[in-house]
Amino acid sequence: MYNKQKIKQAKKQRRKLRVRAKISGTPETPRLAVYKSLGNIYAQVIDNIKGTTLAAASDLKIKQDKKSEEKVSRKISMAYLVGKDIAAKAKKAGISKVVYDRGGFKYHGRIKALADGAREGGLEF
Asked: pTM for this one?
């Protein structure tokens, strides 16, 4: 079991390095970086030249806001809402075009749902 975990971690690290070698955020097209943990998902719009975060969103805030209205508990639908939220925050900051950094995660499930939500929110990849 231990060896399988090491192999899985090594594969993720290789994917992450391969993605980061090809993309970098600039002031014109910042990087939309995504991180997912077991229960939550986070997104940031980053300018790598200046080293600043221009916009950030996570499902923690959305869960608090939706708690009174309706129970949104499915992870994929929550990732979609985070994508729409980060798109709205990026638009507010004057950003319309980004480079998508999936952070070594495979492009399916929550990572894909976040990208779809960001596209529908008005961000262009």
From this structure: 0.83
Task: Kindly list the strands in the beta sheet with 31-36, ordered across the sheet, starting from the edge strand earlier in the chain.
Answer: 52-58, 41-47, 31-36, 99-101
Strands (E), the chain: 31-36, 41-47, 52-58, 99-101
Kindly tell me the burial class for residue 89, based on how many C-beta atoms sit within 10 Å of its own C-beta (0-12, 13-18, 19 or more): middle
CATH 3.40.50.620 corresponds to the domain 2-120: no
Longest dimension (CA), the chain: 48
Summarize pLDDT for 52-101 with one digit per residue, the tens: 999 999 999 888 776 645 555 588 999 999 999 999 999 999 999 999 99
Task: Tell me if 23 sits within 8 A of 31, measured CB to CB.
Answer: yes
Domain ranges of the chain: 2-120
Residue 100: other Cβ atoms inside 10 A? 20
